[in-house]
Amino acid sequence: MELLKEVLEKIKPSEKERAIVNAVTKEIVGIAEEEIEKKGVSATPRLVGSIAKDTYLAGDHDVDLFLAFPLETSLEELRKTGLELGKSIGERLGHYEVAYAEHPYVRSTYKGFEVDIVPCYNVKSWKDVKTAVDRSLLHTEWVIKNINGRNDEVRLLKRFLKGIKAYGSEVYVRGFSGYLTELLIIKYGSFMNLLENVEFLGKSKIIDLEGWLRKEPEIAYKTVEREKESPLIVIDPVDPRRNVASALSWEKFGVFYFKAREFREKPRLEFFFPPKKETGDYKEILKKKGTHLVTLIFPKPELIDDILLPQLERSAKGFEKSLKREGFEVFDLNWGYVERAFIMLEVDRVERTKVLLKPGPEFLSERALDFYAKNQKVWIRGKRLYSEKAVKESIVDVIEELLAKNQVALGKNLREPIKEAEILLNFVPPELEEEAYLFLSKEKWNIKG
């Protein structure tokens, strides 16, 4: 297909770029080897990830340098020595910062390349795996051994998934990881063959490239059973205990499912390189739909996206649940940050009728007849007259009361900021106007695009 050739020309690294990548990664490994020798540490620098597997896209130069320690190293020693070694390598590269996953690692930059320096165990089998990152060594080896020249097919799939916003296994994306794209191409042989089989992929659900269900049935079937609610189960070729697609959400799988079918029917460059969406007036959309927009805005906490965005999601869903309990219909949710953090709720109304008890005078008093005449519903309790009064209660008051009573499930780092949030009705500040339009028009996630 000529279109795919055109896409590849844009996304495949040129020979010049490839030479630069190879030279820079060789320098980084050389610096690591020098620091390991200088410190007398028993560790081996190993390149993993898309650069090592030659499945990286043009311009995407993230280097994953793993420091593989012997299996007999204690976890405490691995963390301590690995971090010290990572820092010294980072200093040699020119700049570093410490980041945290299962254990601390070092992030650095060198000649425009982002470099992650991660300590791990030098595992040879899934039975040796002690930390989550150890498998990366096995993943790289397995893909290199099995990809059989289909590297460009992986590139096409990666770019397609990026174009439809379904790429990345981060908790705030829940899409297809790079490793998962490689396994899907190894399974189906090509980008187009995968798209042709997307219906079968959704129905068959289980992919077992290494035959673990036959070789290690007890362990592999436990994995299948544990992951049965996932949209896809891809038993890791290097570890029968793991579903490579465990991070994939039904929503992102659904987007891929429909976009794959749509591309088959009408292939277009826009799937890979979507044009910037044209925005309009979010207020006009609200008028047409007859719905309302509630926006909570508050200062963005100093948290990395991996922590902040899932907590914003949890908080948005907490408001949805609490407001539904209070009688408001919440049609959709949105969350994120621009200059400040925000939560958007599209709701059916911003006021509700609330009936209040209205005590009156004693029925033998002078005011009793007047109270009786003015109110539709009147009853007597003891000597006193009572009625009821219908009042309009704003959704803002309801939200403030829910927050005051701690009746909304919020992200643990967002409880105090959200309690101080500014609550806006059918209005957002200028920096959120585009976000509000994309959210309300459904252009942000519109699977029909």
**Which architecture of the largest domain does the CATH hierarchy give at level 2?**
2-Layer Sandwich
Helix/strand/pairing category: alpha+beta
Looking across the biggest beta sheet, what order are the strands in?
1-2-5-4-3
Number of beta strands: 14
- Rg measurement, Å: 29 Å
Produce the secondary structure layout:
Elements: H1 2-11, H2 15-39, E1 44-48, H3 49-53, E2 62-69, H4 75-93, E3 96-100, E4 104-110, E5 113-121, H5 135-146, H6 151-163, H7 178-188, H8 191-196, H9 198-204, E6 206-207, H10 212-215, H11 217-226, E7 233-234, H12 250-265, H13 282-289, E8 292-298, H14 305-325, E9 330-337, E10 341-347, E11 351-362, H15 368-374, E12 378-381, E13 384-394, H16 395-404, H17 415-419, E14 422-425, H18 433-441
Parallel strand pairs: 2-5, 6-7
Antiparallel strand pairs: 1-2, 3-4, 4-5, 8-10, 8-14, 9-10, 11-13, 12-13
Short account of what is shown:
This is CCA-adding enzyme. Its EC number is 2.7.7.72. By secondary structure, the chain is of the alpha+beta class.
Q: Can you describe this structure?
A:
This protein has helices at 2-11, 15-39, 49-53, 75-93, 135-146, 151-163, 178-188, 191-196, 198-204, 212-215, 217-226, 250-265, 282-289, 305-325, 368-374, 395-404, 415-419, 433-441; strands at residues 44-48, 62-69, 96-100, 104-110, 113-121, 206-207, 233-234, 292-298, 330-337, 341-347, 351-362, 378-381, 384-394, 422-425. The chain has 449 residues and is of the alpha+beta class. The protein folds into 3 domains: 12-133, Beta Polymerase, domain 2 (2-Layer Sandwich), CATH 3.30.460.10; 147-271, Poly(a)-polymerase, middle domain; 280-449, Poly(A) polymerase predicted RNA binding domain (Alpha-Beta Plaits), CATH 3.30.70. A 5-stranded mixed beta sheet has the order 1-2-5-4-3, with helices on both faces. A hairpin with a 2-residue loop joins strand 4 (104-110) and strand 5 (113-121). Helix 2 (15-39) packs across helix 4 and helix 13 (282-289) packs parallel to helix 18 (433-441). The chain is elongated, with a radius of gyration of 29 Å. The protein starts with a helix and ends in an 8-residue tail after the last helix. The mean pLDDT is 93.
